[in-house]
Amino acid sequence: MILKGTNLKLSFGGLVAVNNVSFEIEEKTIFGIIGPNGAGKTTLFNIISGVYKPQEGKLFFKDKDITNFPTYKRARLGIARTHQIVKPLSELTVIENVMVGACFGKKNYNLKQAQKVALDVINFVGLSTKMFTQAGQLNVAFKKRLELARALANEPEILLLDEVLAGLNPKEVDSMLNVILKIKQNGITIIMIEHLMHAIMKASDYIMVLDSGEKIAQGSPQEISNNQRVIEAYLGDPKLAMQLVGAK
Amino acid sequence: MQKGYTLFWLLPALIALVIYPIVTNNVMLRETVFLILLSITLSISLNIILGFTGYVSFGHIVYYGIGAYFAFYLMYAYKVSLIVSIVLGGLVSAAIAFVLGQAVLSLRGAIFAIATIGVNEAVKSLINNISILGGAMGLYFDFSIYDNYGGALKAIWLSYYLMGTLTILSVIAAYYIKKSKFGLGLFSIREDQDASAVLGIKTKLYKSLAYATSAFFPAIAGGIFAFKAGNIEPSGAFNLVKSIEMIVMVMLGGYGSVAGSALGALFYEKIKSILLVMPYVKDLHLAVSGLILLIIVQFAPSGIVGFLTKYFKNLRKVLE
C-alpha cells in the first residue's frame, strides 16, 4: 500500500468539506474518485498534496506519517499533481515549465538533467510541437497536457490527476486516456478525479465515491455502477423519481 | 535554461563605460558615470526581487540606507577600512532582508508593496531618533579619514573604481542567478507561487534568498556613496523618491531582463539629466518618471526589452 488516509476531516467555517474519509491505495493501480459537485474531491487532493492540512486524521505515504509535511516536501517524496483549474507558468516556455517539475521533483535534477527529462516527458504527452511556446498562449487541451507533463517530470510515485479530461473533445479524451494508461504501465500509481463516467469506469481499478464530504462507497467500477447509494447521490432518490414519472 | 549572449555585449559595454572617464581623465564625466553606475546597480538588484520573483519591493531603498549607515559608522567610529566596511554593510543588509523577508514575503501584491514602504519609513524614523548615529542631522567624516586612501582626490577615484566593479559584479551575479536552477525556481514563483510549492519549490526560502541578494548590492553601493560624500543623513539614505525611481528603471527596461534593467537605468538617467538642467521647471523629472511608469504599465508592460523582442524575435538571446 502506497498511500493511506485515516479519518481525514477538514472544514471551512461551518462547511465540512471532507468528513471522516479513510482510504488505502495499492501500488501501481488507478484509483478513481467520483462524486457530485462540492463532494470534496478536490479538497481531498489538496489534503494529499499538502495545500491544506487536515484538522483530524492522518496521511501515510508508504507507512510514513506525512500529515504535517509541507507541500514542497511531498513533491520531493514523489507525490505530483495536476490542477483542475490549470496553473501554467504563463510567461515561461513549455519546456521551462516542465523543467521546473523535473528540477524540484523527486530526483532533484540539475538544469542539464532536467532538460533531458523534460524533453522525454514532452514527447511522451505529445507537446513536442509546442516546446518553445509560452505556456500562457496554449489552448486548454495543451494546457492540460502541460499540467500532466509537469507532474510527470517530477518522476513521481503517485500522480494525482484532477479532471484532466474535462473540457476536452472526444478525440482529445481518447488520446489523453491512452497517455494515462501508459503512465500506469510505467509503474506509477494514479489517483484521478473525473466527471466523465465512461472514461473513469474504463481506466480505474478501484473507485471511491464521495458525497457532501463523506465517503459513501468504494469498489470496482462494476460494483460502483450498481450501487444504490451512488445512484441516489447522482440522481436523487430513484424511487421518488419513478413515482413522479408514474403519477404523470 | 540555455545561456544566451547577453553578457558578451553587456559586460564590454559596461567596462567601456567605466573606463572612458578614467582614460580621458574627465572629472565631470566621472561624476555622471558614477551616478549611472549607481542606478544600474540599484536597478539590476531590484530586478532580482521584482522582475525574477514578482515582488514589488516599493521601499527597496531601505537596504541601500542600512548598508550606507552601517559602513559609514564602522569607518566613522571604529576607523575600519573602506572595503571591509562596505562588504560588512552589504552582508548585514542582506541578513536583515532575509529575516524581514520571513515576515513580509508572506504578503502578496499591493499589500507587500505597502509593507515595504512601511519598513523604509520605520527604519528612517528609528535612525532619526538614534543620537549616536547623528539623528536627523546625520554624521560627517573628519577629512583626515581620506588620508588613509591618499587624500580626498584619490579617495573619490577609489570610490569610482569600486562602484564600477560593484556594477559589473552585480550584472554578472544577476545573470547567473537568472540562468541557474535557483533562478528557474524564482521565475516559477513569479508566475504562480502556489503551483510552485506543489511542484516542490521551497518558496519561502527561495523568496527570502532572492530578497537578501537584492538587498546585498544596493547596500554596498550605499556604503560607497556615503564614503564618497563624506556625510550621511536619514532623508538622503532612505529617500523614497529614489525607491520609486528604481522601480521606474526596472519597468522601463523590462522587468525580468538583466540587460533591460541596465538599459532602463541608463535611459532613465539620461532623461533625468536632460530634465534636471531645464531652467524653468524644478523636479520635473519626478513628474516625468511617474508618467513613464504609467505609460509602460498601460502600453508596454514588459518595457523596452519586451517591446524589442516582440518585434525582433532574434534579439531574445541577447537581451536576457
UniProtKB/TrEMBL annotation, chain A:
Taxonomy, superkingdom: Bacteria
Alphabetized CDD domains for the sequence: ABC_Mj1267_LivG_branched
UniProt keyword list: ATP-binding, Nucleotide-binding, Transport
GO biological process: D-alanine transmembrane transport; L-alanine transport; L-isoleucine import across plasma membrane; L-valine import across plasma membrane
Protein name: Amino acid/amide ABC transporter ATP-binding protein 1, HAAT family (TC 3.A.1.4.-)
ABC transporter domain span: 3-237
Lineage: Bacteria, Pseudomonadati, Campylobacterota, Desulfurellia, Desulfurellales
Alphabetical list of InterPro entries matching this protein: AAA+_ATPase (IPR003593), ABC_AA/LPS_Transport (IPR051120), ABC_transporter-like_ATP-bd (IPR003439), BCA_ABC_TP_C (IPR032823), P-loop_NTPase (IPR027417)
Automatic annotation (TrEMBL), chain B:
Predominant location category: membrane
A GO CC annotation given for this chain: plasma membrane
GO molecular function: branched-chain amino acid transmembrane transporter activity
UniProt-listed InterPro entries: ABC_transp_permease (IPR001851), LivM-like (IPR043428)
This protein's UniProt keywords: Cell membrane, Membrane, Transmembrane, Transmembrane helix
Membrane topology: Multi-pass membrane protein
Transmembrane regions listed in the UniProt entry: 6-23, 35-55, 61-78, 85-105, 125-143, 155-177, 209-227, 247-268, 288-308
Record localization: Cell membrane
Annotated Pfam families: BPD_transp_2 (PF02653)
The name this protein goes by in its record: Branched-chain amino acid transport system permease protein
